[in-house]
Amino acid sequence: MPTPGRQPSTAAKRRARERAILQATRTIFDEAGVSEAQIDDIAKSVGVNRAIIYRHFSGKEELFALTLVSYLDELAETLAGAAIAPQAPANKLADLVVEFAEYGIQHPAFVDCALALMRRTGSELFDEISEAAMFRLGRAMSNCLSQVSRVIDEGIESGDFHDVDSTTVANHMYATGLGALQLARVGMVVGEAAPGVPKISSLGTEEVKGFLVASARALVSVS
Description:
The protein is mainly alpha-helical. Helix content is 73%, strand content 6%.
């Protein structure tokens, strides 16, 4: 907090403006969707011109990455409760998957933003996003994924899960979970009524959650 009667420093003003830009971006994401978030609209919402945005962020990818951090921070808090619940590792893992799915269903912009970044290669991300921003994004992601990997490690130690690389499995679950949540939003699956004849069937969110839980259990199952 600034000292009473003393003007905020330039650094403090910069941090405050960055927070305002990120909050405006998050608001547009939540209200209109990621695809509708334009730099000019974000700048207008904050009351600055677009040049100011690019003084704070290296580009749109960095702005989106740091906005994703706010979703991930919320998600980490949600997952933390399930991760420490006094129950068997298999039940904890299922609860973590359900919590992740429900957060994604309630926050579709989180899914869109995460998928938008995952379409970039690692080298592209490091070229387009500053090292400081990548660190913040990585820390936010690890705060979520570590909740899952710790439960998997707990299950390995207890003999409930077979010996797997918990970090890799947690990352796999994150990536496939995002894809499944996109499928839940579409709400339908494509099958075949007869050879060469497509068939469209409905798909509910509860079914998607069930598939994700079953998939997670299959990845670590000892049987």
